[in-house]
Specification:
4-stranded mixed sheet; homodimer; alpha+beta; 10 helices
């Protein structure tokens, strides 16, 4: 097991293209014997340094229109339900802090998929603690404990460090897949990233 | 032949990702019985309306670094030579006007591939008329005649109209593939676009 090849899956909860990636990354990777390391981070601070105060999909309308149509196509192809959530981008800070604070816990992928499903399949607001509580329950966790652990000063620092690490790695969008120092950006690069991980194993 | 399915291939000569797309689009499409309509346009005026006076790959350095590395990987995978051209983005106006003025001539794809090869395989400057003359000769054309026809007021208007049409279609990057009114953006969406064209045929 020590030598099992792995990829890091860097995602941000409000990110549309992170949704199909999150729903499929584990099964695709497992089918070729690759382990997935889930890494929640925040695009907001990275966008802010580029002078953007919202998603580029809002700033550049033609890009935004394309993305919404493209998401419909991708989700149809993947057999995933898809709705445009109320408000975009949503505030994914608390969800991200939870996924970050409990990073290597085996339930994080289940929690993360529940959050993405709530947002992009059920059109719910993931800043709402009740919604997140249901996602935590689905992952077998006690919501109050998770909220508490995810909002300590240490947990907040961890999220800041995680996002700084994303920046150091040169990440500028989500999802991104990391294989060694090699970055693959975008849902549609998942298979390339897996192939790259196999080739270097 | 009237009912042969087709895709429109929208490209801009200075665009890096347009290079592998231009080199492969005809063979991939032909292998599945699809006709390709080549459509040169200018991203510059579209970028300018978004407040960009150069390529976003220059404005956003992490995105630029990723793109150059990604181009190396794509070209290695496609078996295409690749060098970073001297200066980016290059001035592709004259090359674009030629491809636009002679739009439906059968030699345009050959000319376009020669221009992309000069720029991204041989590292030449495609604003240089001597370089373009060699590309025209390779496509069996008289360079002086082509330069003349491509710089008439009518040819300039044609290029403006082409770029306005790209904007109307919602294009915001290159390459883009158009199937009916459906847009697929990016080199890595070529196969999706072809599949979409087959499905609706």
């Amino acid at each position: 097991m020590a030598d099992q090849p792995s990829i890091e899956f860097w995602f941000d909860f409000p990110s549309t293209y992170s949704y199909p990636a999150a729903m499929r990354v584990d099964e695709r990777a497992q089918s070729v014997g690759i382990r997935v390391i889930w890494r929640a981070f925040l695009l907001g601070p990275i966008f802010a340094k580029q002078g953007w105060n919202t998603s580029p999909f809002n700033i550049y309308p033609s890009k935004g229109r394309y993305m919404w149509r493209d998401m419909e196509r991708i989700c149809a192809r993947e057999g995933l339900p898809f709705v445009q959530p109320p408000g975009f981008p949503q505030n994914g800070l608390l969800a991200g802090r939870i996924a970050c604070a409990f990073s290597d816990e085996p339930w994080v992928p289940t929690f993360a998929r529940a959050v993405f499903t709530a947002q992009f399949a059920d059109g719910q607001n993931i800043a709402d603690k009740e919604i997140l509580a249901a996602c935590l329950t689905e992952a077998g966790q006690d919501p109050e404990h998770a909220f508490e652990q995810a909002t300590t000063p240490e947990a907040k620092d961890l999220m800041r460090a995680r996002t700084a690490r994303a920046e150091d790695l040169g990440l500028f969008g989500a999802p991104s897949f990391l294989v060694g120092r090699e970055v693959f950006w975008g849902y549609d690069r998942l298979d390339w990233a897996l192939q790259f991980a196999l080739d270097r194993a």
